Amino acid sequence: MARIFNSMRDGIGFDLILVGAAMVFLLALAGLPLVYNILMSFQQVDMFTLGELFRPLAGFTNYVAVVNAPEFWLVTRNTLIFVFASMAGQFVLGFSLALFFAQKFPGAATIRGLFLVSWVMPGLVVGAIWSWILAGDFGVLNTILKAMGIIEAPIFWKSDPNFSIWAVVIANIWLGLAFNMLLLSVGLAAIPRDLYEAAELDGANAFQRFWTITLPMMRSTIGAVLSLGLIGTLQQFDLFPALTEGGPANTSNVAGYWAWQMSFKLYDFAKGATISVMMFVLVLIASVVYVRSTRHEVRG
Amino acid sequence: MSAQIELSNIDKHYGAFHALKNVSLSIEKGSFVALVGPSGCGKSTLLRSIAGLESITSGTLKIAGQTMNGVPPRKRDVAMVFQSYALYPHMTVEENLTYSLRLHGVGKPEAKAKAAEVAATTGLSALLHRYPRELSGGQRQRVAMGRAIIRNPKAFLFDEPLSNLDAALRVHMRKEIRALHDRLGATSVYVTHDQIEAMTMADHVVVMRDGVIEQQGSPLELYDRPVSKFVAGFIGSPAMNFVPGVIGPDGMTVALEIAQSLSLPLAKRQEPGRKVLVGLRPEHLVIGEPEQATLRLPVAVVESTGSMTFVTTSTEPEMTVVETRRTLVRPGDTIGVSIAPNQVHLFDPATEKAI
Hints:
The structure holds 2 protein chains of 2 kinds. Chain A has helices at about 1-10, 10-40, 60-70, 70-100, 110-115, 115-120, 125-135, 140-145, 165-190, 195-200, 205-215, 220-235, 240-245, 255-265, 270-295. Chain A contains 15 helices and no strands.
């Protein structure tokens, strides 16, 4: 007994306990549900087999059914628009803001800190706020656009099939902007000042300095931000119930929300699980890119 | 010879801090000028002002006859070697060298040929495809030099380029930089806090203190005729001894206020009875027989390096004597020390200026 206690104090057993605790946590709360989800996507699940672990196998019929569902291609298109437009918006605006706040002016750090407000706000609250801003009849956005003469008639952002997915994209860009800006700011701050001075003396103008110094030095940060952005966007759920509920007629529905609808509104757990597994593969690819980009960090 | 860099009445304020005070300096074409002084004296600020990395509050800065106030660094055609080297970590040595050429639209084959040529002069030929992180400190230093040389600029600016190297390499690079300067016929401004670097490398040394040029001249001028106690103490190693004294009644001798002392003869007549600060370089003090010497000093510490012996006295203030001959002096002994009259420096105790 004393020996076990000593070995723990020496750190030989203690590190195993620490690793073990983390592994148990991961397995119980992430590993098992994942395996169960994959298992379920290959089973026939209905109200009568809901409580069982081993149900009749379905092979790939769930996958075939999901792909053949009438809304499948619409949801795929929406998911792609949602993911890439959100990421592009978050990244470009986030990078611009990070560059802006990297300039030295009074209050730069304070104002940058205030931007975090959007990040600490719950998605449902953000959704509710944007729901008012985007409202077709009394929304602020329409009022501004009309006052500036950009539009003549109000746009019904949330109920017009042409705009509904963009309503969620706009809200999501706002939600993820601060996170992008913050990570990119950290990356910018890590670039030594004298590299810019050397480049300036070598004859580089502001644009050339950005292109030949900032961007290459930010490679790993940009890789991390983009992969985290992809994961975060695919995971995004709160904005959908708050803004459009995937409608009208699935024109703003994306894979994540569709999976939730399948499982918890239609109680078709097998199809819900199938959609999640398909998304999981995408997230896995993004994660590999993320891990690789952080591992290849080049500094100094 | 024409002035390649001409500074007239330069002032620089950082808020309330007055970093450069009415600095005027003329740097001849082809000369090697060292800016030297303790940290915070403004030498780096002056260099960065020449480069354009700092703006000057008032005064005129000319490079090759053109006024450069407000001209951005990239249009000044000067190259700088940074203390940190500031190599681009994401570029190979070759890309680092050719960066400025590529920015100026030089074609790839020509840039490559130029890089090979510069690599040969700086001993980097075998390293062209390595990244800076794969190089040693000395090699990085060479890349930083090469990056400056390849552009053939109007002036080279060095900001303490050797301070990150170990002592042996520093001595070696000192000679290499100077040789390179001579070979290229370049104009160089070199900032250092190390007076030995300044003395050994430069044609013209500028000693700065608190944003003011304290004295400038050739290295030996500064050594032989320092204008103030500050310059006298800063130039020369080990540092000059300073001892309070009083001019004798005849005006041709000075009595030192330390134990067992006699008077030292002076080269020039001074005001009798005047209180002075006497500066004696350790290497000018010659140890001899106590009876024939002008000063008798009790010995506290004897340190020998083989080629030289450093003798520290137990006087107040203590003095250092450097002896190049073998000596049998031991702590507790009393040594006799002489000095030539023209090697005695006198300073005013209040203003610390040379008399």
